[in-house]
Design brief:
about 325 residues; alpha+beta; Agglutinin, subunit A; 2 domains; five-stranded antiparallel sheet; four-stranded antiparallel sheet; about 25% helix; elongated; binds 2-acetamido-2-deoxy-beta-D-glucopyranose
Length: about 325
């Protein structure tokens, strides 16, 4: 009986330990996050820690999509000031400032907010990819002292504009359709419900070929839905791969300059002007080349058109000649008469 108790006690401790491990999406005041450690948002969507882009040795503190193992970075703190070795440390000071330090105590980056309350601050990585500093005691979003994406930013709401819709805070309304797409349910867009999203103006047809419309500065579509990647492909190979597969809807480079990220279904949760990346969206080729396309006429058609016009001309000539002669003869007759 005692043995059983011990076993259940151990099991209990293990379960609570696992729970604690799984729940690390916050950093408390004075707690440090060393290079190599990360915190993960509650729904497992985003991860925060140090990373090196492009296989360089520079270290940056940032947030990336957790579900793509090589990372698609959504936020970088020390963009202008990389750390050259792995001595970086991320820390929340007791007055609520986020700090990136290197070599022990050199401040590489700090958040601008100051904290004036008596309560303890904590930094939390939310499942939207937003990093916030708030009171430990406050659970609602109102007591946020600092955050990484602003709070009046409606584009943070997941999938706000629906499939093939893109969000921009600079526009009013914030949602619009990608080029080559139109609103699916115009009435609902009018009343500002964008969840219906957009549809293609001209449907894709693999037989006629497709083209890609480049959109710059995009927060890339959600990669949890039907996406695929390859770290070693070039952007050219990526385009070919997307062209070859009829169900591929878009592609982008995985890192700043290399790798391939491709989507095979509806594109969700995009936003513009977010200092993001280039996204190449597949559209029907006929949409791009409508005005410039030159279609050589069928030879048979040319023959028919030519012979018809020649015969028409000949007939006209004969008729004209006949009436002219008739007129001339009648005038001679009149003169004679
Ligand atoms: C953090 O450290 C400072 C100075 O060492 C101390 O005054 C403060 O109480 C600490 N805060 C917490 C939450 O431990
Ligand atoms: C990534 O690598 C490319 C060349 O491969 C280089 O031009 C670019 O500057 C690099 N970017 C960074 C952030 O190091
Ligand atoms: C890392 O670089 C900093 C200066 O950039 C230096 O002070 C520190 O000693 C270095 N640490 C290691 C482990 O090389
Ligand atoms: C990734 O792309 C490279 C280059 O095209 C290719 O050799 C490799 O097999 C691909 N890997 C996967 C897993 O598709
Ligand atoms: C296209 O890509 C999808 C997703 O990777 C795959 O399931 C499908 O088999 C591919 N189709 C062709 C024709 O390669």
């Amino acid at each position: 009986m005692e043995k059983l108790n011990k076993v259940s006690l151990c099991a209990g401790v293990l379960v609570s330990l696992l729970t604690i491990c799984a729940a690390v999406d916050t950093i408390a005041a004075n707690q440090t996050l060393k290079d190599g450690d990360t915190i993960v948002s509650a729904g497992d969507n985003f991860e925060l820690g140090f990373f090196s882009p492009n296989n360089s040795n520079n270290r940056y503190l940032g947030i990336w999509y957790k579900r793509i193992s090589t990372g698609t970075i959504v936020w970088v703190s020390n963009k202008e000031n990389p750390i050259r070795n792995t001595s970086g440390v991320f820390k929340l000071s007791s007055d609520g400032r986020l700090l990136v330090l290197s070599g022990g105590d050199t401040v590489i980056w700090e958040s601008k907010s100051a904290y004036s309350s008596r309560v303890y601050p904590v930094a939390q990585l939310l499942d939207t990819g937003n990093l916030v500093v708030r009171d430990e005691s406050s659970i609602d979003q109102e007591n946020i002292i600092w955050q990484s994406r602003p709070s009046n930013d409606i584009c943070v709401r997941y999938g706000l504009c629906g499939p093939y819709g893109t969000c921009s805070n600079n526009n009013s309304p914030a949602c619009s359709c990608l080029q080559g797409f139109e609103t699916k349910r115009p009435q609902e867009w009018f009343i500002l419900d964008w969840s219906g999203g957009c549809r293609r103006i001209m449907s894709l047809d693999c037989n006629y070929g497709e083209a890609f419309n480049k959109i710059s500065g995009m927060k890339l579509p959600d990669t949890r839905l039907n996406s695929w990647y390859n770290v070693s492909m070039t952007i050219g190979e990526c385009e070919m791969a997307c062209k070859r597969n009829c169900s591929c809807t878009a592609y982008a480079s995985l890192d700043i300059n290399s790798g391939c990220l491709a989507w095979f279904g509806d594109l969700e949760d995009m936003r513009e002007n977010s200092g993001g990346r280039d996204l190449y969206v597949k559209i029907s080729a006929s949409r791009l080349t409508d005005s410039q396309s030159y279609k050589p006429m069928n030879k048979k058609v040319i023959k028919v058109v030519l012979s018809t016009s020649v015969s028409f001309l000949v007939v006209c000539l004969i008729v004209a000649l006949y009436t002219w002669r008739k007129k001339k003869r009648s005038s001679i007759l009149i003169r004679k008469g």
